[in-house]
């Protein structure tokens, strides 16, 4: 079945048919974390969103090179020019080398991503390992006349760029509005225009992280690393650049300007952005101090949390909303996700206990035959995961009726139902059954024992030993196993 995937392109502001530049190869770059603190829920959303896309593109048969960077230079965020170097500041506070801080929190980030079942990217470049490439980018922009030196720092000349190109093409802003909205900042006197952004900053004497350059000992501007590393690993033109919606301006806008200023045209065909996670309507983030770390979610050790939530509950919570919609944190929403995940995992586990009949009833056949197509249609419509989950829940209803012998299913349809449920739940949505060991392990452990006991009960019934038969049923019920007698024999369900 050939699939046509449509994705929303922030650049064109519409859904577009995904047509890779060099099919079947796909190049995808996603902005990764700045590693100066523990990963929080706001980090989980882009990681899970683009993990979903990575999984789905691979499922569709594409050969994906997925690049997600690690920002281990404490760049100056927001305006990218002034403020504290976050990693260096953390290093001073903890009396560590900056690279110790970066490595420690990189390890913490990886551990959290593993817990969330986020696949590792194909390449994970570090900003500090690509200073030469960033300096080369700055030289190209200067040689083309779109940057200038001031007191050892290099700034991008937005007004000069805008004479030939459009600064604001991604965010929809015009230059006058950008200039008027720019704040008066320390060091603005170095710039021709207060909206100009730094490509290279001369390091102050106390600045720990610095590198030699033709202009000064200093460090690259925040926006340079992604342009330089994207070009190095994916080429001068690639398919997808992703990140959080808060990166559209200024970060991704500046990336586009840098690419055009250095090579004459844009690098990226599709720009994709996930929306924010909010707490009481405000964006969650380290800089705002309103974040909850992923470890705190997993342990429940935060005043805003009623309890601990498993990594798969967090993943399900994020996938329950469309990636372009906002998600507001609440314990109620997380507990609803916990129940939804349990429902889905119970449904998939129950499939192993269903015995096929000679033929399907009409409603079951109709639901099973449509399930795969409906899930694909939802995924192909800009990764509409809430609809996928809704279709899987509908299938869980069919599974429950089959377990209760209120419906029948043939062998071929049971195989199709099982394969579709597992494909979209585990392979594409990336969920896992983490409940005290895998479902397979529990089924094997319980199944052998319970089936043996039920066989003894069947022999007791055949001998009309109703006392023993009823006692076995009651003892199993007391242990949490519900036994149902049918015309085809006894079945059992483990009650949660």
Automatic annotation (TrEMBL):
Q: Which cofactor does it need?
A: Zn(2+)
Q: Which residues form the Cysteinyl-tRNA synthetase class Ia DALR domain?
A: 374-440
Q: GO terms for CC?
A: cytosol
Q: Which GO terms describe its biological process?
A: cysteinyl-tRNA aminoacylation
**Per its UniProt record, what Pfam families does this chain match?**
CysS_C (PF23493), DALR_2 (PF09190), tRNA-synt_1e (PF01406)
Q: Where is this motif: 'HIGH' region?
A: 33-43
Its subcellular locations are: Cytoplasm
Q: EC no.?
A: 6.1.1.16
Coarse class of the primary localization is cytoplasm
* Gene Ontology molecular function: ATP binding; cysteine-tRNA ligase activity; zinc ion binding
- Per UniProt, which keywords does this protein have? Aminoacyl-tRNA synthetase, ATP-binding, Cytoplasm, Ligase, Metal-binding, Nucleotide-binding, Protein biosynthesis, Zinc
Name the InterPro entries for this protein.
Answer: Cys-tRNA-ligase, Cys-tRNA-synt_Ia_DALR, Cys-tRNA/MSH_ligase, CysS_C, Rossmann-like_a/b/a_fold, tRNA-synt_1_cat_dom, tRNAsynth_Ia_anticodon-bd
Binding-site list for Zn(2+): 31, 226, 251, 255
Where's the motif 'KMSKS' region? 283-287
* Class of the enzyme per the UniProt entry, highest EC level: ligase
Assembly state and interactors? Monomer.
- Please report which protein family the annotation says this sequence is part of: Belongs to the class-I aminoacyl-tRNA synthetase family.
This chain's protein is named Cysteine--tRNA ligase
**Which organism encodes this protein?**
Leyella lascolaii
